[in-house]
Amino acid sequence: MTDRLYYTDPYLQTFDATVETAERRGDRLLVTLDRTAFYPTSGGQPFDTGTLGAWSVVDVIDQDDGSIAHVVEIGSRPGPLDPASAGPEGPALRLERRTRLHGIIDWPRRFDHMQQHTGQHVLSAAFDRVFGVRTVSFHLGAAASTIDLAREMMPAEIAAAEAEANRIVWEDRPVAIRFVSAEDAATLPLRKEPVRGGTLRLIDVEGFDLSACGGTHVARTGGIGVVAVASWERFKGGQRIEFLCGGRALGRFRSLRETTTASVRLLSVLPEELPASIERLQAEAKDQQRAIAALQTELSRFRAEELAAGAAQVRLRPDATEARLVLRAVDADANGLKALASAITAKPGFVVVLLSASTPALVVVARSADVSLAAHQALSALTTKFGGRGGGKPELAQGGGLEAPAQAIFDAARAAIVASS
Ligand SMILES: [Zn+2]
To answer: How far apart are the CA of 14 and the centre of ligand 1, in A?
Structure first.
């Protein structure tokens, strides 16, 4: 059993302890001590980091036998525990039973966890007291924390619980640690049924919340700073609430301030005008797209006229019927090519082969309704020769991925379509 110094003094940042076991696992060492201020991952709160002697603590594990294992990376610090006695196998082997070690907790990380964890007690208690809604689980993440509530909540209810939590924070109430027997605990108004028996450690937010908890908490609610709900979503029939306390809330405020400042500068509006201004921009963009589409339709009609006017009279395979052939490269995408080809072949007597200006090329082969050419067969002759793929119907076929200069494709198209004289 490791003596958990954080149970009674969560503000303890440094301590001295004696090694009880040191077990090598690959490039890591699992060290147990007679006492520790390092918090192991448990109850939704992540482990502490810091140093033990010259070693970096990279994980802290709550073991089944009641001991706490400190995981240190042997490769993490080349400096030996005792430089004079470092052997060829490195300093790891100097960590033996009864070695005295000085431990230092990474305090900013731990204090952040204390703020989030105590804030969670207060926020969960606020939902419980104001709306009778239980917290079914809690997760303290690296960037944000969540609680899962037993039912869905209205935004106004969430705001009311958030306000109540902050009232308690700003009243700066004491947060006491009490140890009681399971029998005594049964007579106390605990927010949640304790999961274990024996002596229970209770966290008592004066006059507001009493919960059995093994985590680390600030000594007064004022230390939480602020409880800010960042977002919420439906989750398993209940409500998941993402919240930030203290320093994390300030960090989020700063990042929102930066993005807001950048956005208002771009749009030259006040922050509260941002949504309306984005809506206006979206509406304008939609209008412009509609106008461009209309112009493109009109433009392709003009282009169609121009291309049709320049078309040469040819005799088609296989029966030497006459048609006017348009062979052109056009700066357009697949839809643009198709629209243009359709505009030309809307008139009787045309065969059209349009290529995109891009490489590899897109191609559209089309004909008027009164012309007896199989456009899909002509296209297939082109993709067979130049690669790429495509397909379609006798009146219109399109393809892409043709790897050849435009002139070579035109020559092949002419050979496939026009009867030799
Ligand atoms: Zn707690």
So the answer is: 22
Reported residue count of the chain is: 421
Report how many domains make up the chain: 3
Q: Is residue 306's pLDDT more than 70?
A: yes
User: How far does residue 122's CA lie from ligand 1's centre (Å)?
Assistant: 10
Range of the domain at 145: 110-254
Distance 144 CA to ligand 1 centre (A): 16
Beta strands in 141-199 (DSSP E): 145-149, 175-180
> What is the CA(55)–ligand 1 centre distance, in A?
28
CA distance 375 to 307: 19
**Is the same domain home to 14 and 101?**
yes
Do both 221 and 332 map to the same domain? no
Tell me, rounded to whole angstroms, the distance of Cα 49 from its chain centroid: 26
Q: Kindly tell me if the per-residue pLDDT of 421 is higher than 70.
A: no
Please tell me the pTM assigned to this model: 0.74
CA 256 to centroid of ligand 1, rounded, Å: 29
Give the β-pairing of 389-392 and 322-330. unpaired
> From the CA of 215, how far away is ligand 1's center (Å)?
5
Do the domain assignments include residue 260? no
Residue ending a domain, among 192, 220, 254, is 254
Same domain, 202 and 332: no
| Cα 156 to chain centroid, rounded | 27
Question: For residues 116 and 48, is the Cβ–Cβ distance under 8 A?
Answer: no
Read off the pLDDT of residues 250-287 as tens digits, 9 standing for 90 and up: 999 999 999 999 999 999 999 999 999 999 999 999 99
Among residues 105, 137, 159, the one where a domain terminates is 105
Give residue 82's pLDDT: 43
Q: What is the DSSP letter of 38?
A: P
Residue 352 main-chain phi, psi, to 5 deg: -125, 130
Q: Quote the ligand 1 centre to 218 CA distance (angstroms).
A: 10
User: In terms of domains, do 115 and 246 share one?
Assistant: yes
Q: What is d(CA 60, CA 62) in angstroms, rounded to the nearest whole number?
A: 7
259 in a domain, yes or no? no
Residues 162 and 234 in one domain: yes
Q: How far is the CA of 297 from the centre of ligand 1 (A)?
A: 66
Tokens 């509260």 correspond to what residue? 272
216 Cα–ligand 1 center, Å: 6
67: helix, coil or strand?
A: coil
